[in-house]
Amino acid sequence: MFVGDCVAELSKLPAHSVDVVFADPPYNLQLEGTLHRPDQSLVDAVDDAWDQFASFEAYDAFTRAWLLAARRVLKPDGTLWVIGSYHNIFRVGAILQDLGYWILNDVVWRKTNPMPNFKGRRFQNAHETLIWAARDKDARKYTFNYDALKAFNEDLQMRSDWLIPICTGGERLKDDAGDKVHPTQKPEGLLHRVLVSSTKPGDVVLDPFFGTGTTGAVARRLGRHFVGVERDRTYAAHAEARIAAVEPASAEALALTLGKKAEPRIPFGSLIEGGLLAPGETLSDAKGTVAAVVRADGSLDWNGITGSIHRVGAAAQSAEACNGWTFWHVFREGRPVVIDDLRQAVRKMMGNPG
Amino acid sequence: MFVGDCVAELSKLPAHSVDVVFADPPYNLQLEGTLHRPDQSLVDAVDDAWDQFASFEAYDAFTRAWLLAARRVLKPDGTLWVIGSYHNIFRVGAILQDLGYWILNDVVWRKTNPMPNFKGRRFQNAHETLIWAARDKDARKYTFNYDALKAFNEDLQMRSDWLIPICTGGERLKDDAGDKVHPTQKPEGLLHRVLVSSTKPGDVVLDPFFGTGTTGAVARRLGRHFVGVERDRTYAAHAEARIAAVEPASAEALALTLGKKAEPRIPFGSLIEGGLLAPGETLSDAKGTVAAVVRADGSLDWNGITGSIHRVGAAAQSAEACNGWTFWHVFREGRPVVIDDLRQAVRKMMGNPG
DNA sequence: ATGAGACGTGAATCTTGTT
DNA sequence: TAACAAGATTCACGTCTCA
């Protein structure tokens, strides 16, 4: 591990000495005011100095510099991973294409537990994007452990969308005061999948933005060598202690983190998108005493009371709560069909994507 | 619908005339051999290195041209959607940031049934990326139907990852020979969610790469107007026939679920004017630990601190801010009733006068 | 000891209308 | 245009408190 600026430190390494680069650069978040949750508590923003850039141009220059330095130390058949959000990932992706990297995949990290959008002004930002790229367009022998991934994924090809929780609980590093050490610590599960898919035991992994050493900890556990560069001495110190405590895990334990799957939740609106229900159709309860109209936005209208299938179902029964899936029916060929059956049909259409 | 080059046709439209742009541009022109510069000259590949540079440059110029043209016709509070894959989306995203668009979200379309990766050299490419951006950074009144999407998604706010099947079966347009008409026809379910989330009935939607008219078909069904531009006469002809067969949904089915923000404002004083609260009555918080007195002028008095229900509520909690409507309660028949319920009663009175 | 419920928190470009 | 005021707004978990 080296403490220092990543471009300067990388220039000291020999060329073509690294199998894989994993980089979690600053996102250039460009936050302005403060943000409160509905309960008035303050959201702890990423306002650290290392994430501040004067302009897109400044961020681009920074990005070009470290991507160039990383490319020099990569072996000809090496690959590079970068993670980012919509704030920066498009710039990073375009620049790495310009520099001659060849994109192999973009991969979506779907968070099981993302922070909500508190003000209701956008979609909940529930994912981040990783780019996986070869050093050169004509690289043929880069490492991709296709069969291992397929075995871990219940004999299905590993997809480009990964469902992994954010880093919380005991895994999250805390200082003596109980505060998080690093504002953006990545989950080990993410690095695990990255390294299992694109490195072999004994490979050298370089992380130019080492932070608190997630890459190093997972690399050590998986029997990979690592080189980390971190500018902040506090982060580096925590990383060192953390990695020293890592014990290599058994092969069985490795399989566990990759096998997780979740049953896909089907929103009611998907029945409309999928054409199983048309806007304007009428839903009723099992006895046919209540009638509500399906609206295009995925809500119901019962005598002017509108909302989700559950809310309106509750209102129609004067109940506190209601499972709309089993309450509402639609007529098909003269018979009432519970909409839960339509949901099953959608699930079949949807196949089995994690 | 217009048949022609999108930049040329867009230049004929009036400025600030469009609410939303949905664009599905060519993903990687260099592979398809149809890459033209904005002046219509054909890009001629020479050798690999030069070809790569020339191709990205040309694609960037093409992208800049149509994004600029689209920005001119967008209303100040309009938004733009672009869909792409890792081949092009990073360049598109960086350029639209450079042009002054302000990214609101990136959204991942997760395919339920993606094509497998046959060679087993990469992850299965199971998603595409959409960028949703406002025309301007400081646009505040762009349309986002938050409450409709929340109802759609069973009372959870809509995430940035959408699970939707690809376009197959009866929805996929075929020609007389039984071959698919367009190589990349998008599913109507995807456009449904795009238009429900970011447009209102009656809005104008522009699609500069109209193809076989998915945007037009869904817009028509959802009671939105559309403008489509397509260069290929065959695609345009199929689009026209397809859209003509679409049955628009009824006005009632198109109504959007609206939240509190859309409701008329009721000053607190109206509760006193309407006789629902009497001057001198006592309000308290939900637990009954705080008590304030209602004054005839519509202000509260809590231990000598006077002001609006919000200010006094904040002071009573030692908080920065407070929604007085949900904080304060009044006793009715021995039970605490939140004053927000009284406000609803006033709204009903005002909605049905007499 | 156990369970129910309160509390805290995470890479966030997060309001709107009037004066 | 800047300042002020009204008032709308959250999901999944892990941990802690208290009965």
UniProtKB/TrEMBL annotation, chains A, B:
<keyword id="KW-0235">DNA replication</keyword>
<feature type="domain" description="DNA methylase N-4/N-6">
    <location>
        <begin position="18"/>
        <end position="239"/>
    </location>
</feature>
<dbReference type="Pfam" id="PF18755">
    <property type="entry name" value="RAMA"/>
</dbReference>
<dbReference type="GO" id="GO:0003677">
    <property type="term" value="F:DNA binding"/>
</dbReference>
<keyword id="KW-0489">Methyltransferase</keyword>
<dbReference type="GO" id="GO:0009007">
    <property type="term" value="F:site-specific DNA-methyltransferase (adenine-specific) activity"/>
</dbReference>
<comment type="similarity">
    <text>Belongs to the N(4)/N(6)-methyltransferase family.</text>
</comment>
<dbReference type="GO" id="GO:0006260">
    <property type="term" value="P:DNA replication"/>
</dbReference>
<dbReference type="InterPro" id="IPR002941">
    <property type="entry name" value="DNA_methylase_N4/N6"/>
</dbReference>
<dbReference type="InterPro" id="IPR029063">
    <property type="entry name" value="SAM-dependent_MTases_sf"/>
</dbReference>
<dbReference type="InterPro" id="IPR001091">
    <property type="entry name" value="RM_Methyltransferase"/>
</dbReference>
<dbReference type="InterPro" id="IPR040843">
    <property type="entry name" value="RAMA"/>
</dbReference>
<dbReference type="Pfam" id="PF01555">
    <property type="entry name" value="N6_N4_Mtase"/>
</dbReference>
<dbReference type="GO" id="GO:0032259">
    <property type="term" value="P:methylation"/>
</dbReference>
<dbReference type="GO" id="GO:0008170">
    <property type="term" value="F:N-methyltransferase activity"/>
</dbReference>
<protein>
    <recommendedName>
        <fullName>Methyltransferase</fullName>
        <ecNumber>2.1.1.-</ecNumber>
    </recommendedName>
</protein>
<keyword id="KW-0238">DNA-binding</keyword>
<keyword id="KW-0808">Transferase</keyword>
<feature type="domain" description="RAMA">
    <location>
        <begin position="260"/>
        <end position="348"/>
    </location>
</feature>
<keyword id="KW-0949">S-adenosyl-L-methionine</keyword>
<dbReference type="InterPro" id="IPR002052">
    <property type="entry name" value="DNA_methylase_N6_adenine_CS"/>
</dbReference>
